């Protein structure tokens, strides 16, 4: 980082309660009030350098009090200007340049007031040092956030943005300045070439409005590929929207989110499906506008066949964990919204979607993804059966060449929800097409006590319809298993009725004894 040192005298300012003054043999004759700080200083040497103070002290009074509460940068910026006038050593850098420059402009410390004045020296430092450096420009622009109106009017913001954009558009092979790059596995010593996204982490430190200006300027040149701009958006989201809740500064976070979404290039490959889905989850959490959600859902659905199950796993923002454990309800509604958008676009394809080879591959990829997702969320004990059924039934029949995966999902759900009602178990198992189950899965199904008997019977009928030698022994074994299950249920029912009869007999006997005893002892 570049520095500029001005002045040679030692610092003689000191504080006494809420008053700042300077050690001097001459009595102070100028009082400057800024917020809660009072400065006791001298007209000379301030007045020769400050056009504003010259006008305010034109009455030639012995001692003058002036209020400068509106000075940009506050008391710290004013003190830099005052020390420059006294010839006291000051160190200027990208951190304090903007506030010092705005304060100097406010005090009118131009060459028209005195040759070699503060503004001229600051402008030289800005143009020759700050704008020449990458990180210096970033720091200066970041420090301008609290003084945006002043820095905009003075051209500081625009010059910084132009300098940053110019450097971003520089070919990586010509990048000679230092930059921040902390990607896992990256080592500058072993990687001689500069990565194409070398600039993304540094501009992620900027306020969202300044970041937007830079991305818009870059995009307008059409010189960078859309995925590179998408990576910059991803880095910014990771920096400012990591793991947040709806209560954490939601208005600011929503502004950041909606701005990032508006900056995504139209190209489908500009951002990954995992990032798109995360943006959708954040949009639901932060209450983004309907237009924003619709746009993100559309992007997610266009990339859905590239997703993995882990990309789809988000905690439901409305779920509550009643038992205090680690289980939580997955955000199935998010997946349903994306899947419905995908299916809507898929059905609009021409020719007929189920007759087009490429579209058939696409829908079957998504079908396998959804069935794998169902196997994961089925383990969630808080998962409502209605959502499980809705998502399983949403896929068209052509999406599943076989029903083995959806069978596994149903079996897992029944295992994790042992108290599911008989009616719900039947509704859930209606999703299954027993004719699309493999031989191994059918063999498992007929022995599966979690399945309704009706489903097991359907599997048996299908086996019998096939009627070949390979399946006859399996059908016989399955029939024996089914009869065994039925007999077991009958035995349990009979045993239960027997226990009830014994209990009733015991109760009658006790009542009789009580009656006899009451008669003997009137």
From TrEMBL:
| SUPFAM superfamilies for this protein | POZ domain (SSF54695)
Keywords of this entry: Ubl conjugation pathway
Q: Per its UniProt record, what Pfam families does this chain match?
A: NPH3 (PF03000)
Q: Where is this region: Disordered?
A: 472-522
One biological process term in Gene Ontology: protein ubiquitination
Name of the molecule in the record: BTB/POZ domain-containing protein At5g47800-like isoform X2
Query: Can you tell which superkingdom this protein's organism belongs to?
Result: Eukaryota
User: Where is the NPH3 domain positioned along the sequence?
Assistant: 197-466
* Pathway entry: Protein modification; protein ubiquitination
Basic and acidic residues: bias regions: 480-491, 501-522
Which InterPro entries does UniProt cross-reference here?
A: NPH3/RPT2-like, NPH3_dom, SKP1/BTB/POZ_sf
Q: Which family does it belong to?
A: Belongs to the NPH3 family.
């Amino acid at each position: 980082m570049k520095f500029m040192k001005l002045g040679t005298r030692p610092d003689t300012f000191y504080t006494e309660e809420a008053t700042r003054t300077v050690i001097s043999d001459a009595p102070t004759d100028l009082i400057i009030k800024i917020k809660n700080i009072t400065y006791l200083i001298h007209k000379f040497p301030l007045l020769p350098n400050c056009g504003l103070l010259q006008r305010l002290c034109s009455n030639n009074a012995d001692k003058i009090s002036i209020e400068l509460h509106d000075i940009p940068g506050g008391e710290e910026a004013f003190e830099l200007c005052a020390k420059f006038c006294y010839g006291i050593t000051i160190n200027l850098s990208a951190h304090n340049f903007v506030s010092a420059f705005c304060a100097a402009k406010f005090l009118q410390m131009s060459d028209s007031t005195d040759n070699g004045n503060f503004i001229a020296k600051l402008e030289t430092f800005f143009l020759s040092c700050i704008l020449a450096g990458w990180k210096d420009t970033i720091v200066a622009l970041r420090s301008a956030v609290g003084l945006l109106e002043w820095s905009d009017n003075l051209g500081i913001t625009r010059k910084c943005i132009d300098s940053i954009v110019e450097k971003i558009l520089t070919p990586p092979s010509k990048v000679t300045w230092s930059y921040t790059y902390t990607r896992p596995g990256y080592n500058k010593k072993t990687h001689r070439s500069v990565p194409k996204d070398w600039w993304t982490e540094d501009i992620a430190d900027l306020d969202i409005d300044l970041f937007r200006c830079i991305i818009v300027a870059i995009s307008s040149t059409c010189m960078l590929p859309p995925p590179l701009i998408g990576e910059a958006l991803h880095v910014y989201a990771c920096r400012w929207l990591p793991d947040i809740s709806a209560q954490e500064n939601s208005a600011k976070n929503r502004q950041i989110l909606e701005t990032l979404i508006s900056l995504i290039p139209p190209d489908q490959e500009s951002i990954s499906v995992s990032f798109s889905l995360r943006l959708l989850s954040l949009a639901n959490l932060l209450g983004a506008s309907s237009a924003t959600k619709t746009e993100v859902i559309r992007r997610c659905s266009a990339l859905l066949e590239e997703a993995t199950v882990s990309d789809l796993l988000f905690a439901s923002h409305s779920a509550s964990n009643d038992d205090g454990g680690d289980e939580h309800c997955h955000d199935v509604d998010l997946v349903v919204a994306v899947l419905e958008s995908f299916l809507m676009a898929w059905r609009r394809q021409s020719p007929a979607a189920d007759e087009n080879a490429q579209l058939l591959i696409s829908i079957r990829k998504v079908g396998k993804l959804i069935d794998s997702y169902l196997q994961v969320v089925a383990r969630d004990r808080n998962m409502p059966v209605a959502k499980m059924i809705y998502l399983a039934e949403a896929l068209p029949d052509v999406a599943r060449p076989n029903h083995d995966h959806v069978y596994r999902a149903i079996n897992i759900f029944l295992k994790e929800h042992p108290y599911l009602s008989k009616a719900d178990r039947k509704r859930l198992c209606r999703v299954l097409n027993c004719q699309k189950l493999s031989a191994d899965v059918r063999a498992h199904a007929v022995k599966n006590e979690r399945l309704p008997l009706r489903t097991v019977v359907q599997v048996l009928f299908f086996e019998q319809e096939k009627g070949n030698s390979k399946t006859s022994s399996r059908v016989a074994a399955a029939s024996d298993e089914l009869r065994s299950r039925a007999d077991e249920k009958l035995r349990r029912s009979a045993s239960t009725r027997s226990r009830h009869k014994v209990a009733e007999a015991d109760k009658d006997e006790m009542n009789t004894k009580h009656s006899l005893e009451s008669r003997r002892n009137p």
